[in-house]
Amino acid sequence: MLMLQNRPPRGDSDDAREWGEFRHLPGKRFYDFSKIRQEIQDETERGAGFNKGVSEKQIRLMISSPNVLNMTLIDLPGITKVPVGDQPTDIEARVKKMIMSHIKQENCIILAVTPANSDLANSDALQMARDADPAGTRTIGVITKLDIMDRGTNACNFLLGNIVPLSLGYVGVVNRSQEDLNQNRSISEALAYEDQFFHDHPVYHGLSDCCGVPQLAKKLNQILEHHIRMVLPSLKDELNCHMIAVVKELQTSGEVVESKVEQGAVLLSILKKYCEAFSALVDGKSQEMSTRELSGGARIHYIFQSIFVKSLEEVDPCEALTDEDIRMAIQNANGPRNALFVPEVPFQILVRRQIHRLLDPSLQCLRYVHAELLKMSHACEAPEVQRFPVLRRKLEDVMGKFLRDGIKPAERMIGNMIEMEKGYINSSHPNFIGGSKAVELAVQQLRSSQDGTDVESVSTLEQGLRSRAVLANSVVKGSLPNQGSHPQSMNERSVSAGNAYSRTWGISSIIGKWASPNDRSANTALGETFHDMELLPSMIQLRDPPPILKPLETQTEREAVEVIVTKLLLRSYYDIVRKNVQDFVPKAIMHFLVNHTKRDLLNAFVQKLYRENLFKEMLREQDDVILKRKRSQEMFCVLQQAIQAIDEVDSEMSSPNSNSSFSADTTMRLPRTPSHHSHV
């Protein structure tokens, strides 16, 4: 692989000389081209052996000269039909595979070399070129050994394309013979001999435009120029795309900062960008807004409304309470006596339990928002932070501690709010159902559930409940209904006396039809019974009470109404508290955690990280970042030079008086290495 590099001439005599350098001998320049030829021979023997072996390993040689074009020439081995020496049995297939891997590339110009003393129609080089380039738009036919054809024959039909036509045509050349190589005949002498041969030949003299190595160089130069015109726009676009990518990498890598002032400015800029990006993400003003999923503050709103609020709305305060639980609580609150009214204590105990259940989901909502803020802190890291792993770790530590500290006051506020709701049950709330309404609804529910109940019995029960509700309200006010017209009965006096030691919800006990009108008859019968008991021969023994006592399994209508009333009161007050919690908890989280973070995060960063003695440590870069920046800078310079060169070429080609920068004569000043077989 011969890589030609054009080097503009300078005043220094050493720079004006041509030199070569092998890839396997980096740094060693060869100014004597005979030594270059010898090194090629030696490297061939080292890689392929001494007995005509073949190797796919490339010998890469770079020639730097002011007399060459910037291009790469690949000298491929000739096709061998019969293996000889150390060549493998499949030598033909291997060589064809090697050749095809190069000539199938679209930006490759194929030189199909065929000797003049062979049948052009059977040329292996032309056949492979046609397989790789069916249109023939990048194939040039090269006819060699024109000076050793049989007398009376010529290659005129070959050169004119009458046998196997090619779009780019044919060029005939006369190379040095093996005898010339053995005698070290120079290139200039060989070119002079070739020029004289074509000048004196009667047939080739009229085909001077397609004969000679200078004409081949000229044709290659023209093809190269045409190829450059074709690929120049796309090549320029590709280089610009690479340039943009490299510029982005350089922006990510940043610049090296040395002084304390620069380090402080860079650190403060990173901290400000971090906080601004965080606030923008929370407020929904981020430039990196996603269109596929919720992000930033929208996720917090989703947690508040779609998770927290809806979850509380789906909770039934009586879901975990059975009728037996409520009945048991009411009877336990009565103590050793039968209460005339539904006591307040069971309701307060049960409703406080349900209010306390709201604490866990409220704190869980706080934890969800905290987790979202942590995610946002990772998403809003500036690209510059990636350069400094120590600073990135410090930012994460300070941010994590800051958010943990913000959780504590929010937790206290939420806990205090729940305790306030538990500490005072506001039965005077305008949205609270109240006792009279609860009794009315309870009777309606009982009536709808007891389809077989006597209508008169239910009506009597309803009238008794309503009258006792009015009675209870009057007792609370300190007076009885119709006090001036009717004297108090025993039942009324008992109600009035009971009010002195029992707090009620204004809901009377269900006495109704269970009260007996004839108290004297009852006392007489009771006395007779005790008289009869004294005549019995033995005492009646009572059963021992069981360790766990429960009410009778049979539930009376009175108890059923009391249970329904308690449920209605419980649901009514729970809804009031639930709405308060649904409104207050998001406000507490936003104030103590989210808004606090937006306001004071930068101050916390400056206080913890912006210290002169920490600048060097926090802005220390990793080795791979430094290496990446160096490579990007080198690539940036190379791309700049490439784009500049393309602009110059484009300018020269666009000029109407432009000519090729290199003539055929100057192009061929490069000494040629010996060829062993036909070339493609």
Automatic annotation (TrEMBL):
Domain GED: 563-654
Compositionally biased tracts (Low complexity): 652-663
SMART domains: DYNc, GED
Domain of life of the organism encoding this protein: Eukaryota
InterPro entries given in the database record: Dynamin (IPR022812), Dynamin_GTPase (IPR001401), Dynamin_N (IPR045063), Dynamin_stalk (IPR000375), G_DYNAMIN_dom (IPR030381), GED (IPR003130), GED_dom (IPR020850), P-loop_NTPase (IPR027417)
Dynamin-type G domain residues: 1-233
Alphabetical UniProt keywords: GTP-binding, Motor protein, Nucleotide-binding
Gene3D superfamilies named among the record's database cross-references: Dynamin, middle domain, P-loop containing nucleotide triphosphate hydrolases
Region (Disordered): 649-680
Entry protein name: Dynamin-related protein 3A
The species this protein was found in: Vitis vinifera
Upper classification of the organism: Eukaryota, Viridiplantae, Streptophyta, Embryophyta, Tracheophyta
